Amino acid sequence: MKKALSLLLALVMVGALASSALAEQPAKLVIAARGGSHVDVINAVKAQFEQENNCAIEVLGLENPDLKQKIALDSRNSAGAYDIVMLDDPWMPEVTEAGMLLNLTQQGYTDDPDFVPTSLALGKAPYGTGDTFALPFSGNVTLLFYNADVLASANAEVPDSWQGALDIAKAVNGKDGKVGYVIRGQQGNPIVGDFMPVLWAFGGDVFDADWNVTVDSQEARDALNLYIQLLENGANYEKNDIVSSVADGKAAMSLGWPSWYISGKASTAGYAKIPGKVNADSPENPAGMIGNWLMGVPKNTQHPELAVKLLTFLTSAETQRAAAPSGAVPTRTSVFTDEALSQEYPFYATLLAATEASRERPRTPLWGDIENVFGIELSNAISGIKSVDDALMDAKAAIEDIVK
Amino acid sequence: MKKKNTLYAYLMSSPAMLVLTVLSVFPLLFILWYSLTDYYYLSTRPPQFVLFDNYIRLFRDRYFLQALGNTLRFTALAVLFEVTLGMMVALLVKSFRRGQEALRTVTLLPTLLPPVTVALVWQIMLSNNYGLINGLLGLFGLGPVSWLTDVNTAFYAILVIDIWQYTPFAFLLLYAAMQGIPQGQYEAAAIDGAGKWAQFRFVTLPNILHNVVMVTLLRIIDTFRLFDKVNILTKGGPANTTATITQYIYHNGVNMFKVGYASAASVVMTLIILILAAGYIRQNFRARERAARR
Question: Are A275 and A201 in contact, with CB atoms under 8 Å apart?
């Protein structure tokens, strides 16, 4: 009898221990993030969410191509390895068309008007008008960077038109070994990203509203001719050389992403919104290229509700305020205009204005291919291998071949 | 008895055959199959059989043909220079009475570096803003030259980097082969009045010819897969003059998830390498058969 009782007691204790262990096992959420400062930001704020929701958060920092591959490969598993994924905004058409993300609107998420509209629109499918599939985690928009001393030496103000930028480049280039304007003319994504703001400022684009290819329009020809003139009055550098040349006062101007020049409170160069006009008399077009990092919840997550909750936490104004010292660029108006933060980070006002007046890259799942061939033909044009007309006509033919 | 031996041979080779089948034969068959389909990894519908559509599209794509031409040209030049220079360095080092080991080690260093590191180091050296090479040219009032963004220099800049990195590989294998040449052959040649050139032509070269062919083949296979340097330094530009087949496959298969199309490009690449290697492989098999008969 005693033996049976002790056995029963032991069984009860083991059962109780096992069930309590199971009950207290916190859920583990895995975030596939772009490596670098984004991971630091998430790690800096995650403890609060872990405590409040009895969960553990693991952050995987991955390089850009790795991140896209891993997200895509995992999307075909019935039980996904990730609960939140970071996405470069041009990937959105691909991932939403492939049905990889949870529809946040259907999950009960209502759009927060505090997000800058151009950032929020990136996470919607169809772009801007559809349901929300991802939220903007980290903002970014290309700016015009300049060296104030070099501009002053040419008695020039910060240009507000591309003709103005070209005039300054002409005035500066070659004087005391200075470079007037630096293009980022490496084939592929770099040259396309560097040229698109000029194209937009001239009123051109890759597609018209009906998705007809328009890269050979008169606006595009004029834009590319001006871009080549900028190169003739400057240089073609890769990113590190662009940054050092403008920062050191060797070059006058370049386009770039804020993180290249701005770190913490300081910037190694002056910054301004990218000119949206061809010349002083022409109409102003949005010309800065938006490039946000978004966050979405994969459809095959094991913790959909908790993941959506974490997503709203990570994109909240509180988190963005806390992330500011790590160099994160906000996507919320309230954070951009926060008085204390604006004093600390004076570039927020320019960034907000540029983000509000920004343009997105064409929303098509084929953008990767289009960017590739457009980059090749732009490179042909600036290298002098093809004339501007031939390069743009060939680009049009190649893009039409991709989208047909 | 013969049957028993055959069974034993099959048994002993079965682990290797299994590994070969799983790691090489299956993937190859899958690639062959995928190349005949429109398999897009992110598609929600199953892949459709498209017969040779991918191959037709491939050979109609001017960017692929350009990448193919660049790769063939790059491979021919790189392998020619690497093997020739490797042999010259091997002969030079072999001629030294002292310090052969130290020289061998120092010479090998570039080959030991990962291609990504090599690309980054050369990117800094070739910079047209603060690069060492343009700095040196500046001392003579020359430059700066946009080595990696000028259509006239980018291809050759990458070629030089590849030659710099892999000449030591050719050197090592050829130097090792030269060590196996009996000294008596040189002495006999010298007695017959052969000079340095004649000794090289009639003693050294015939003895290492098999190794020269092997090094050439290995370098062809490796150079054909050129990717890291191009991807980091030029991204295939300027004007697509440094684009390679591997980069083309990577873009379509890895960036754009077009598995079917990228598989077709991979099959073409494999076939070209097989054609280039066919002579050597056939010769090698025949040599082994002859040796087995003896």
Answer: yes
